[in-house]
Amino acid sequence: MPRTQLNVxxxxxxxxxxxxxxxxxxxxxxxxxSTEPDAQDARRAFVEAAADFMQRYESVFxxxxxxxxxxx
Length: 72
Known about the structure:
By secondary structure, this protein is mainly α. Helices cover 69% and strands 0% of the residues. The chain has helices spanning 12-23, 27-56, 58-65.
């Protein structure tokens, strides 16, 4: 069976404007909503990596700075 290739060029600004119009939102709000899941994933990954780092190097920090915690 022959394959057909379809090349389509899209103007990203026009696509974003159309998505905003369909959502009945401003362009800014529409972009925020479409990128929020990625931002949440990035925040979650950062916090998990920071917690892992602190756990792995807890003894090094305790040795270097002591175990007393200073309230600020």
